[in-house]
Amino acid sequence: MRILLIEDDRATADYIAKGLQEIGHVVQVARTGRDGMLLAAGEAWDVIVTDRMLPGPDGLTILRTLRASSITTPVLVLTALGEVERRVEGLDAGADDYLAKPFAFSELRARIAALARRPAPATDPVLLQVGDIELDLLKRVVRRNGQPVELLPTEMRLLEFMLRRPDQVLTKTMLLEGVWDLNFDPSTNLVEVHVSRLRRKLSQDGSPAPIQTMRGVGYMLGAPK
Fold first, then answer.
1. Do 42 and 30 form a contact (C-beta atoms < 8 A)?
2. Residue of 25, 64, 119, 150 with fewest CB within 10 Å of its CB?
3. Which helix (DSSP H) or strand (DSSP E) does residue 199 occupy?
4. CA dihedral 15, 20, 21, 25 (to 10 degrees)
């Protein structure tokens, strides 16, 4: 099995790599987030194991970048942060499994083996559609009721993020992280401005855009009932 290990702590990286190599795996170690991201995106791996806290892009940024690029390699996140909220954050970013430090090597080995046995995910759709709004992911074309809608790149990413999560409440924090890769800033109106623009462009035929404002919570895109 080809395993990419992204870990900046030399002792931890050496310990994991040595143990995995002893049981027959090929292990490539990256010691920075930048090197890890380049290797993860540039080569084929059976499993990626990454620390969460890294110099350069951290583990969650690497995860989001891979998933945004439709790279579905199973990813196991290692972290000293074991709280439930932290684990949920990692899973939401695209992690397949989460293991808190310190851990037994036997558990790490078993979790990697379990990830490798998982069936490959279904092919990502080339067309996203909710109601009469559709987005062709290959041609990057948006249509509503069959009519083209011209969107700027950021508006396109915002719409894609919403179309992939129909009838789901999307908080401002989720949108900032998922579309702009920004941490939550309560003072910014970036989300509000772009949602307003997206609504206006989707409503160009006179029909209101099906983007609901969930007051005090966020937004939700859903087909008319």
1. no
2. 119
3. helix 190-202
4. -150
Instruction: Write down the pLDDT at residue 90.
Output: 67
CATH number of the domain enclosing 67: 3.40.50.2300
Cα atoms in the Cβ-side hemisphere of radius 13 Å centred on 188 = 13
205 and 149 belong to one structural domain: yes
Reported as a pLDDT band with limits 50, 70 and 90, residue 51 is: very high
Cis before 121 (ω within 30): no
Tell me what the mean pLDDT of segment 190-194 comes to: 92
The span from the CA of 61 to the CA of 41, in Å, is 13
Identify the CA nearest to 3 among candidates 93, 74, 51. 74
Residue of 112 and 217 predicted with greater confidence? 112
Q: Answer yes or no: is 61 within a domain.
A: yes
Total number of domains in the chain: 2
**130's tokens:** 């909710």
Range of the domain at 22: 2-117
Assess whether 19 and 110 both reside in one domain.
yes
Overall pTM > 0.90: no
Q: Is residue 171 located within the same domain as residue 69?
A: no
Exposure on the CB side of residue 183, measured as CA atoms within 13 A: 3
Whole-number Å distance between alpha carbons of 69 and 221: 23
Structure tokens at 61: 């940024």
Residue 112 lies in a domain: yes
Final residue in a domain of this structure, among 72, 96, 117: 117
In a domain, 180, yes or no: yes
